[in-house]
Amino acid sequence: MGSLYRYYKPLTSICFSPPPTKSYLLHSIKIKTHFSPTKKTRLHRFFTSLTSSSQPSIKTNGGDASAASQSSELWLYNTMSRKKELFKPKVEGKVGMYVCGVTAYDLSHIGHARVYVTFDVLLRYLKHLGYDVHYVRNFTDVDDKIIARANELGEDPISLSKRYCEEFLHDMVYLHCLPPSVEPRVSDHMPQIIDMIERILENGYAYRIDGDVYFSVDKLPEYGRLSGRKLEDNRAGERVAVDSRKKNPADFALWKSAKEGEPFWDSPWGPGRPGWHIECSAMSAAYLGHTFDIHGGGMDLVFPHHENEIAQSCAACRDSNISYWVHNGFVTIDSEKMSKSLGNFFTIRQVIDLYHPLALRLFLLGTHYRSSVNYSDVQLESASERIFYIYQTLHDCENILSQHRVAFEKDAIPPDTINDINKFHDTFVTSMSDDLHTPVLLSALSDPLKIINDMLHTRKGKKQTKRIESIAALEKMVRNALLVLGLMPPTYSEALQQLREKALRRAKLTEDQILQKIKERTVARKDKDYEKSDAIRKDLAALGIALMDSPDGTSWRPAIPLALQEQQVAST
C-alpha cells in the first residue's frame, strides 16, 4: 500500500498543476429546505422541495432576510466569551465574515485544509439558513517567510507568492470550498494599511523608532482579553520579535523599515513593509467595516495574531467590534500540531494524490471543528471507504430512479418513510445549529442509507409499498445534507471511478491485474480449490481491495487494508 512521508524541509522543487476544470467549479449551491417547529409546516416544505429542481443548490449571491428569520437558530462558540452564544447578526439577514488566509510561500498542508473546510461549512450553513454572507479571506503575500523562501530560490517574493496563491485556490476547488466574496492581498492594500497605522499613531497607541513603527501594548489595558494572557506572560522571542529598542518586549511591529534585498513601499516613516498583524485589521475594515459578525481562523492565531488585531483595530477606531471569534482545532501527528515550521506536515497535494479530496474533507468533518484531529492512514482509509459507500448507495438510487417517473403527490410517501425523514431532519437541525456538530450529522446518515440499501437490495425491501417514492425522497434528503457539508460530487459515477483509481494507486495495482485475479479465483472456486480462492481474496484484501460475489459475478471495491483494519480494532 502506498503511504505518505513527512517533509522536514520546504519543498525546493514543485511541479505546479493546471487548474481543475470540473463542474464543481460552479460558485454556488442552494438548499431550499427550511425547518419549522411543526411537522405540518416541515412536511409541506419538504414536499415542495421534492417537486422542485432535482439538483438543489446553495445560493452564493444574496439571500432572503425573511428566510433567515424563519430558520432554526445557530449557536456558535465564541472564543472571546469562552461559551456558546446564539448567533445574531448585526444587520438582519446579512453576515460579514473574515477568515485569515494563508501565508503563500509553499503548498498548503492539511492543517490549512481543516481551517478552510471548517469555515466553508459555516458559510454553507449560514447560506442554508437564508443569510446573505459577505465572506472575506485574505492572502498574506508580504512576509518574512515569503522573503526567506524567495531568497532561497533566487526569485522575486511577490512573484513566488502569487504562484502559491494560485496553487492554494486549486486546492480549495479540489476540496469543494466555495470561493469567498473577495480575496484581498496585502501587496494591493498598502494605502489602507498605512492609513490605519497613521490613525493608531495619532491616537497615541504607537511610536516610531528609526523608520520602524511599534504598537505599545501598555497603552491598551484590555490587551489579552481574547487569549486570556496577562501582559507579563508575553515574553520576547515567543512569536514576538526581540528588539532592545522597544518600550515593552511585547510591543509588536506595525511597520518595518526596509532592509537590503527585501521588497518595500514608501510611507510617512520611510520605505518599508507592514508587520504581520496590521494587514488583517486594515483589510477587514476595508471590506467589512470596523464592526462585523464573525472573525475566524485556526486556534494558533488566537495569540498573538488575533489578540494584536483587536488591539490595532480598537486603537484605530474606538467603535471597533467583532461579535464572534471562531477558531478551529489543530490537525496533529502523534499528538503534535502539524505545521510547516515544525516540518511534520503533509501537503494537501500529497494526500489527494492517494486519496479522493472528498475523502479528506469527510475525514476533517468527522471530528468536531474545535477538537484536535489526529492524522493517520487508517483514518483516511476509513473516510475513503465510507464515502465510497455513500456514493455507491446514491448511485444505485439514480440507476433505479432513472427507470421510473416519480410524481410526489399528497400521500405519495408512506408514513414510515415520513417518520424517517422527520427523524433525520431533527438531527440535521439539532447538530448543525449546535456549533456545527458535523460528526453527529455524518453519523445520522447511516440510518437513511441503510434504509435505501434495504429497499434496493433485500427481498423484504423490494416488496415495500411505494418503494420507488420512498427511495426518491430519502435520496433527495441525503443529497441536501451532503450539499450543506460540501460533500456532493459532480456525479456519483465520476466520484466512484476516482475513488477506485485512488485505491488502485495505493495498492500499486492496475484494474487489469485485479480482474485477472478475479478470473483466477473464479476458476479456483469452480475447481473447488477453496484454499487458493481464499488466498486470492485475502491477498487483495491486504492491499485494500475487497471482492464482492453476487449472482451476476464478482466485482471489487476499495476497502480498508487488513492490517489497518486490525489496527483500527486494536485502537477501539
Report on the structure:
The chain is an alpha/beta fold. Helices cover 46% and strands 13% of the residues. The protein contains 20 helices and 15 strands. The strands form 5 sheets. Strands 4-3-9-10 form a 4-stranded parallel β-sheet, sandwiched between helices. Strands 5-6-7-8 form a 4-stranded antiparallel β-sheet, covered by helices on one side. A 3-stranded mixed β-sheet has the order 12-11-13, with helices on one face. Helix 7 crosses helix 8 and helix 14 packs antiparallel against helix 16. The longest helix has 25 residues. The N terminus is likely disordered.
The gross shape turns out to be elongated
Helix content: 40-55%
Give me the number of helical elements: 20
Biggest sheet details? 4 strands, parallel
Proportion of beta-strand residues: 5-15%
Strand order of the largest sheet: 4-3-9-10
Rg (CA only):
27 Å
What oligomeric arrangement do these chains adopt?
single chain
Computed structural class: alpha/beta
Instruction: Give the mean pLDDT.
Output: 87
Q: What does this entry show, briefly?
A:
By secondary structure, this protein is of the alpha/beta class.
Q: How does the SSE layout of this entry go?
A:
Layout: H1 39-50, H2 65-70, E1 75-78, E2 83-86, E3 94-99, H3 110-128, E4 132-137, H4 144-153, H5 157-174, H6 190-202, E5 206-209, E6 212-215, E7 252-257, E8 272-274, H7 278-288, E9 291-298, H8 302-316, E10 321-328, E11 331-333, E12 336-337, H9 348-354, H10 357-365, E13 373-374, H11 377-401, H12 415-433, H13 438-444, H14 446-457, H15 459-462, H16 467-485, H17 492-507, H18 511-526, H19 530-542, E14 545-550, E15 553-558, H20 562-571
Parallel strand pairs: 3-4, 3-9, 9-10, 11-13
Antiparallel strand pairs: 1-2, 5-6, 6-7, 7-8, 11-12, 14-15
